[in-house]
Amino acid sequence: MAFVFSSLSKPKDGGVKVDIVCVPAIGADPRKTWERQTDSAGFERRRLDYVLHDRLYPAAQVHLYDHLTRPERELEVKPPQGPNDHAHKKSAEEFAAGEALVADYGVAEWADRFLEIVSEHRRAQRTDRRPILFICHSTGGIVVKQALSKRDAEGQNSIAAWCLGVTFFSTPHHGSSVLSEPEYVQTVQDHLGLKWEMSENLRHDFLLRNTDLETLNHVFAVSVFGVKIYSYVESEDTNLVVLSTNDLGGETLTTIRLCIVDSRSGKLSSPEAPFEDEEVIQLNTTHVGGPQFTDEDALYSFYVDEITAFVKEFSADERSLHHALNHDIMSNTEVDVHQFYVVGTQGEPGSIKIMTAHPSLQTFLESGPSKCMEARVRGTDQADEGSRNGSVRPAIEFRPASEPAAPTLMVTSAESDETSSDASRADSYPKLSAPTVPLPKNIHTRRPSLTIEVLDPGSPGHLAPKASKKVAFTTNAANKDTDQGRRPQRAHLFQLPSSSSERFKWIHVPFTHAGWVPLVLTTISQDKDNLNLHTKLLMDKMWFSQHNQSRHASPHARFVRPSVKCLLPKSSEKHVDMATPLSAVEDVQFVAYLPYLHWDSFRNLQKRAEIIKLRREQPHARPIAKHVASGKSMEHKLIWQHLTSDRPVHCRRTLDQYGYPSLRNTSVRDADQILYKRTKPDADMQPPKELSMKHKLQSSRAAAASMPNADDGAAKVLMVDQLWLWIVDNKTVITFFAPKEKEDNDGGLWKEGDVRSEIYQDINGDYANQCTDPFDFAALAVFHAVKALLDRTTDRNLQVFRVFEEYISILTEQQTLSFKEFRNNHQYKKAKDINAQQHIDNRKDLDALLELRDIEDELSTIEKLIKEQQSCVSEMIKQYRDLNTRHGKGFNGINFLYDVDQFLTEHKEQLDGMLKGAQAAQKAFKELLDMKQKQANIVEAHLAREQTEVAADQSRSVMIFTIFTIIFLPLSFFASVFGINAREWSGNPGNENSALPTLHEIFTYMGAISLAVIVVALMVAFNRHARRLSYRIWKIFAKPYFNLLGRLGINPRRPPDQPSRASTLGSMEIDLEKQADIDAEKARAKRLSTLSRTHSKMNWEEELRVHRNSMVGK
Fold first, then answer.
1. What is the pLDDT of residues 225-283, one digit of tens each?
2. Transmembrane: present as a keyword of the record (predicted)?
């Protein structure tokens, strides 16, 4: 057997975190593959495994894997020592026998050997639960990929479960002409150092456009999750020496320069099968120089550093939670597989019925839709519509004893549908339940007994219908009818789908995750055994170029642009639209991306926004938030896992996020939605009639501007979801759209407007719409996506257009009342009778104007949505007309499109009417505000006139006081001067011994002291710093005095009703400091803002009264 070389030195027990296994090309030397051939820039010529060992010891253990066993590796042809050298002959025979043995091996056999020896080695070392990294070169990478994709009888792969990463050096993921064509066999062996030439079986596995390789890529992408992939591709040609012939028929050796593995084949990802965590790095080396990093010292250091950091930062707990979350998503995300088939009597037109399976996404990707449906028919999958909605019911319902005997139910195999005449004549029903039939004329009085031929032992009491057996409800043979003349009833059979009765399948994935689209399409292509089926559907112009991305990279800016494409068959005679490629198959293929209106609760919106915020704060999904991992919401888990992936999940968007995708944050606009404000619990406390009369606009605006309350979670918000639809061939249609998740105690409200439920109810029932082909169903899906919320909801809070119309009516009524109040306020003859506060206050009208602007903005966004839908529907009608004429498809579907087109036209007209009403109300409110502003100007002029009159009266009073001052000031001055006891007025002016001062001395003191007091007073009056300094000095000297008086029990302050001098002085100081700033701010506000200007004059009468009182006081 092949073996794994032991590590250079075995680390201590418990110190190893990761195993690293280096895998060379098939048959290549496991040592020489990794040896560096050059010594540049001081780098050592050491093998890669030595370098990794030194860098990672003791955290990692490095192994070298050899595809050959030890005896196979030791086989050599001994040189001949003579013509009869038996040792030479024997060695040659053993060498040839060994070559013949491995010549039958293909990639699968080499992978089995690899998986077996690595598993045995890990079990022997008791390291089977240790994480492992693989470093592969050339064909060895395909062997590792095949081994990781295999499953045992229990569906497990211990190696893949613990794989952390794989490095591919020049691996032919999509085949190689050099490795597959026979003329390159010898030169490939020489370059890679293979023990033997590549066998024909092995070369066949590396053919270009090999379906097995493409299938392996898909299975590998599904099998491994969270595995870091490094793909190093070669870019330099290799000198290949081949044997060629010339024109003369002679043979000669020719050197050809080619890349052994093309750069496109060296990448694991492709547009048809992308891989999430692959990092592609180009090496300027040949095929052999890739793992040796020839002349690529910088990349060599980068790779070693990356592996070192990856191993040292590895956390087993985080990885376990990461894988558990992914397993939860893949196992609990149910994919709907609906099979439409025809039932009916031969020679008569049949009806379309449905059989439904609900496999998990993981099961669907591994098994395919056909096997999932076969499991459903066999009874393995018992999930039905009730189980999806939270209720479980038996596959076959039992009647109570009081009811008459149930008819016989027989479930036959799929093959019996074609041979049994009874089955062809039986009544058919879409569900596996007993059909209702008319009661017989003679009804038994005895209770019939129940006979069950086959019971599922795994679930007692539940019937497990098998395709190969019959299950019948019959009456007991002992209970014979007393009426011997009655004929026995014929057994009523339920016809199961078969290959001859199948029309098409509808496959639905419940989330818009771009990473799942290639996986689902590839699975269907494999199920159809045609890998070219989806290649054109995932072309850049059909898929990736339709994705919108903004510079700020917010999740709400991520969506698929609305479009409709029809891919005509390759044999189509006329190809009108050259921009749309032809189909890769002989069937018409169809693609549609359509936005549609939906709803969500405000609670869900807040939770989703919080999850997105937390997830964007960290670059990777690990570590996982505990409330996300333990929560019930699959949407939150999906967002956490794939929000920042290369092909991320497309989150549900609010109406404003749809209308303004370039905004970084729309949380304020989302909380200001009209539907949210009109469906909040406080808005529903009053009946609609009373609500319209008592609605307070200013409170709603204040509530919208503040943080929402916890009780507002039940309110509704408008959302814009996406419908992704592909018709892969004439028998398969695929849809992706996000559901509205169920909430606790929502009373089944989550079903309102649910597109999937609407479609299922329409196609499943006695009066179901008949969809004869995928094109009929595609039109029906578009029909329900457009109408689900606008036409099919019964809850009054979800009737969107009615909510808008009611709110516009309320605001229009408010506008009428405001006009009446404004008119009535002008009927008073006296100015004092006018209600100035009500006349000037315009806050209520301004709030109403802002509400109308919000309504107009949201209606304009809905109008944009309807226009995009009309564009898509019109394009579909155009395509369907051509399909009806040229291909005979979609005859029923075009009628659905006509209906939805008329529906959109009618709602567009209704929307235009609401927009006109909102705009008319806006215009009226603007006129009202303008008139109130003009009236405010009049009031301001009146106030200015009164202030002028008051100023005139004050001027006259000042003039009178001035006159009296002018008259009496000289008299009082001279009277004071002559009253001074001066030496000159004493009668003895020459007496120098007199105690009286002279006039010169008196006037000197008076002038100096007066000048000092005046200067200090002016400085305190006009200098802010001087005022503050004086106030601080006063506090310093006055505080000890007041404290002393307080200890003595004496309160020097005045009673509370009279302010003290200190407080009065303090308030005067503060007022004096701020008065100039306040006046300047008021003046500026009056000039710049009408609202501030009118608000500053709301209390003008009170200001005038205060001013008059102050003048009287003076």
1. 778 899 999 999 999 998 887 766 677 888 899 999 998 899 988 766 677 778 999 99
2. yes
Q: Which residues pair with 593 in a beta bridge?
A: 563, 724
Q: Are 661 and 794 members of one domain? A: yes
Domain count, the chain: 3
User: What's the chain's Rg over C-alpha atoms?
Assistant: 45
Confirm if 551 and 566 have CB atoms less than 8 A apart. no
Long-range contacts for 256-259 (Cβ within 8 Å, ≥24 apart)? 258/178, 259/178, 259/234, 259/235, 259/287
Q: Which residues contact 274 (CB under 8 A, 6 or more apart)?
A: 221, 515, 518, 646, 647
Closest by Cα among 413, 401, 421, 348 to 374? 413
Which neighbouring-strand residues pair with 548? 559
Whether 241 is in a domain gets the answer no
Label residues 962-989 b or e (16+ Cβ within 10 Å = b): eeeeeeeeeeeeeeeeeeeebbeeeeee
Residue 611: what residue type?
Answer: I
What whole-number distance in Å separates Cα of residue 469 and Cα of residue 323? 40
The model carries a pTM of 0.73
CA 64 to chain centre: 43
Q: Are 146 and 108 contacting, i.e. CB atoms less than 8 angstroms apart?
A: yes
CATH of the domain at 6: 3.40.50.1820
Q: Give the phi and the psi of residue 213 in degrees, each rounded to 5.
A: -65, -40
73-98 burial code (b ≥16 CB/10 A, e <16): bebeeeeeeeeeeeebeebbebbeeb
Is there a domain that residue 734 lies in?
yes
pLDDT, tens digit (0-9, with 9 covering 90-100), for 741-798: 888 777 778 888 899 999 998 888 666 677 889 999 999 999 999 999 998 888 888 9
For 696, the domain range is: 510-926
